[in-house]
Amino acid sequence: MRLTATPRSHFSRKVRLLLDHLGLPYELDDPGNVADIDKEIFGGNSLMSVPVLSDGQQFVFESDNIARYVVRKFDPADAYGVLTEDTESLNLRAVMNGIMENDVKLVLSTRTGMEPDKYPYFQKARQAILQGIVWLEERGQCFAQDEITYREFYLISMWDHLTFYDVVELDYPVLLSTITKLSQSNLVRCCAPA
Ligand SMILES: N[C@@H](CCC(=O)N[C@@H](CS)C(=O)NCC(=O)O)C(=O)O
């Protein structure tokens, strides 16, 4: 398998964490700057975003679609809870996805020469990140410290990206203690943004 992904992409990292925990080998195809406008460097993804998985003749776009594809093909027992329909898990994942999307807006607007904090659109993005994290912190006990699942893959990927790009101040002790515990694992640390 080949994963088109940048080393810092949080959406890609949750897929990489899944592949690594399942022990599935893949080749990383790094398009470089995800702000670039060239469909071909994004594995043919018309939306020009990562991750994209190619597996033989099969192309899969979008991180959660990739995770579901991988689990259906290689891990039908779904050891990491990717296919869950549990409402609480799906809400947690929706909020983390939303935070990651808003994080991308802020990082890419800055990278392409804007000053995001001048504009209400980006102020709302930052506010959504902050409110989302408070909401997650209030539900911090929902995250496992010793039994990692796809939900924790999200959390780690989201948190480390926000930290790496210094998007917002992160003073949330419940989440931090979970992240610190989970980050003791080599599998988690080895694909951290650097
Ligand atoms: N919903 C998509 C979001 C993917 C996404 O936004 N990826 C970022 C990198 S972390 C990207 O490639 N952004 C490029 C852009 O938005 O132009 C997914 O889950 O795969």
What would you say this structure looks like, in words?
- This protein is of the alpha+beta class and 194 residues long.
- The protein folds into two domains: 2-74, 3-Layer(aba) Sandwich (Glutaredoxin); 87-189, Glutathione S-transferase Yfyf (Class Pi), Chain A, domain 2 (Up-down Bundle).
- The protein is built from seven helices and four strands.
- Strands 2-1-3-4 form a four-stranded mixed sheet, covered by helices on one side.
- α1 (10-21) links the parallel β1 and β2 (27-29).
- It binds glutathione.
- Residues 9-11, 34, 48-51, 62-64, 104, 108 line the site of glutathione (GSH).
Q: Report the count of strand segments.
A: 4
User: What profile does the largest beta sheet have?
Assistant: 4 strands, mixed
The CATH topology of the largest domain is given as Glutathione S-transferase Yfyf (Class Pi), Chain A, domain 2
Helices and strands, in order, run as EHEEEHHHHHH
Ligands and ions found: glutathione
- Give the domain tally: 2
| Helical content band | 40-55%
What average pLDDT do the residues reach?
A: 97
CATH architecture of the largest domain: Up-down Bundle
Distance between the termini: 23 Å
Identify low-pLDDT runs: none
What order do the strands of the largest sheet run in, or round the barrel if closed? 2-1-3-4
Task: Please write the CATH class name of the largest domain.
Answer: Mainly Alpha
The portion of residues forming beta strands comes to: 5-15%
Rg from Cα: 16 Å
What is the approximate shape?
globular
Question: Structural class given helices, strands, pairing?
Answer: alpha+beta
- DSSP summary: helix tally: 7
